[in-house]
Amino acid sequence: MEHFLNMEFVYTCMKYFVLVGISISTIELLYNWRNFQDNRLYSWKVISTRGYFSENNIFHRLAHFLLKYPNFIGVIIFRVLVLVLLVVPGIWGFSQAPLFLALVLTSLLINYRSPFGQDGSDQMSTIVVIVLFLYHINPENSIVAQAGIWFIALQSILSYFTAGFFKAKGDKWTKNPNAVYLIFNTSTYGSKPIAGYLQNRQSAITFLTWSTVAVEVLFPLVLITGYPGMLVFLGWGLAFHLMNALVMGLNSFLWAFLATYGAIIYCCMQFSTYWIF
Amino acid sequence: MNLSDIFTYLIVGCLGFWLLASAICQFNILRLEDFFRRMDYFSLLPRWSFFAPNPGVTDYHLLYRDKDQENECGRWRELPIASKRTLLGAIWNPKKRSKKALSDAVQTIVRSSNTLKPSEFKTSICYIALVNFIASLPRKADGRATQFMIMESYGHYPDKGPKMLFRSEFHKL
Q: What residue numbers bound the domain in which B103 lies?
C-alpha cells in the first residue's frame, strides 16, 4: 500500500487503467463507424444544427471540418494511433504531454458530437485524461500533481455519493426496495437468468438494493477509514463495477472508475495521517 | 512570482472551480445547474445520478411502418433497442453505444412529448435524428411516407402488457 503514497505510481496506475477503457471504447467507436454516416443516428448534418456557435465562428468551422463524415473517422483513427504511442513502451521517447493533449482534444470532439449515447464512464475518462495531461506538462510540479490526485479522488467520491443520495430519494430503492430486480428484469440493462433467479427471493433483492444505496451514500467515509478499512469501500466498488459489466454490459465503467482508485487510496492514506481517531 | 507559480495557481484554481461546479450541478445548489450546463458544450460537468431516483424499469421499443403510393400502410417493424447480454460483453460491447443512443433519443422524445408543444419537440435534435435515421433505412421503393411508434414493455417477467407511449405523424420519404 505504501506504493500509493508515491504520486508517480498513482499516476501510472491511473494512466494504464484509463487507457485500457479508452482503447476499448475507441475501438468500439471505430467498429461502429457507419453510425456516423449522414443517414444514421449520429448524422453530423443533423447534430450540427444545434447551433451552439455562429457559422462564422472559427471554432464552428474547425469543428465542422473535423466532425463531418468521413473526416470524423480520421479523428478516431488518429486517437487509436495516439493510444498505441501511449500504451506501447519505447515507441514515443518524448514528453507524454502532447499525446495526452491529443487524447483530451479528441475526447472533447467526441463529446461535442454526441448529444446522446454517452455515459458516465465517458465523462470520468475525459476528467482523468485532462488531469493526466496537466500532470505530464511538468511531472516535477508536485503541487499540480497533488491537486490532480485530490481532484480525481473527490470527483470519484462525489459520483458514488451523488448516485446514493438520489437513490435514497427514490421509492423503488428505499420504500419498496426492488430496484435491482426491476433493472435486471429489463432487456436493456438486465439479464433474464439473473432476473429469473431473483424473482422470488425478496430478501436477496432487498439486500442488494439497500446495500447499493448504503455503500454509495457512505462512500465519502473512505477518506477517513484508513488502511485496511478503505478496502471495504474499494472492494465493494470493484465488485459492483464487475457485476455491472457482466450483468448490464457496462464494460467501460469498470476501467474508468478503477482509474480513480489509486487517487482515492493516496488521499485516504494522506488524510488518515491527520485523523486523530 | 514567476511563470511556473502562475501556472501552478491557475491549474489548481481551475481544478477547484471544476470540482465545485460539478458538485453544484449534481445537487442544483443555488439553482445554478442550468447556468453551468448551458455552457457545457463538451460534457465536462458530469451527471452522477446513475439509475436514480427512478431507475429505468421498462424496455422501450421503436417500431416504424411505411405508407405506399396508394396510401396503404405496411406492417409495423421493430428496430431493436436492447441487445442480447453475453459474457464477452463485459469486455467488448460495441453495440452498447448505438443502443444507448437510440434509447436516449427515444426516452427524450417520450419525455418531451409530454412536456413540450408538438412544434417544439418535433424540431428537437432527437426527433429529427430519429426521423432521419428511420427514413434512411433500406426499404421497398414504393414507400411514400414513414411513421414511427414508441412502446414500453415490462421486462423479461412482465406483470402487465406493453403499452404505446408515442406515435409520430407520417413523414415524407
A: 59-172
The reported pLDDT for the residue numbered A28 is 96
Show the cell assigned to A270: 494522506
Please judge whether A49 and B4 are an interchain contact, meaning their C-beta atoms are less than 8 angstroms apart: no
The answer to whether residues B59 and B155 touch, using CB atoms and an 8 Å cutoff, is yes
- Residue A112 sits at the chain B interface (C-beta within 8 Å): yes
Q: For residues A7 and A141, give the distance between their C-alpha atoms in angstroms, rounded to a whole number.
A: 11
- A36 located within any domain: yes
On chain A, the residues whose CB falls within 8 A of the CB of B159 are: none
Q: Closest by alpha carbon to B105, among B128, B126, B78, B81?
A: B126
Q: Does the residue B72 lie in any domain?
A: yes
DSSP letters for A123-139: HHHHHHHHHHHHHHH-T
pLDDT in tens, A164-212: 999 999 999 999 999 999 999 999 999 999 999 999 999 999 999 999 9
Mean pLDDT of A248-258: 97
Position A244: which residue type? N
Q: CB-CB: which of A155, A159, A182 is closest to B57?
A: A182
B23 in a structural domain: yes
Whether residue A277 is contained in a domain is answered as: no
Residue B97 Cα to chain centre, angstroms: 11
CA distance A87 to A253: 20
Tell me the chain B residues in contact with residue A173 when contact means C-beta distances shorter than 8 Å: 52-53, 55
**Residues B67, B22 share a domain:** no
Task: Give the helix ranges, DSSP H, for chain A.
Answer: 7-31, 44-47, 58-67, 71-87, 97-113, 120-137, 142-168, 179-184, 192-198, 202-218, 222-248, 251-272
How many domains would you assign to chain A? Answer: 1
Please write the tens of the pLDDT for every residue from A103-147.
999 999 999 999 888 999 999 999 999 999 999 999 999 999 999
The rounded distance, in Å, linking the Cα atoms of A120 and B49 is 9
Q: Say which of B11, B49, B54 has its CB closest to residue A144.
A: B11
Q: What is the pLDDT of residues B41-76, one digit of tens each?
A: 999 999 999 999 999 999 999 999 999 988 999 999
DSSP helix/strand/coil, A268: helix
- What is the per-residue pLDDT for A197? 96
Backbone angles phi, psi at A130, to 5 degrees: -65, -45
Q: Which helix (H) or strand (E) holds B59?
A: strand B59-68
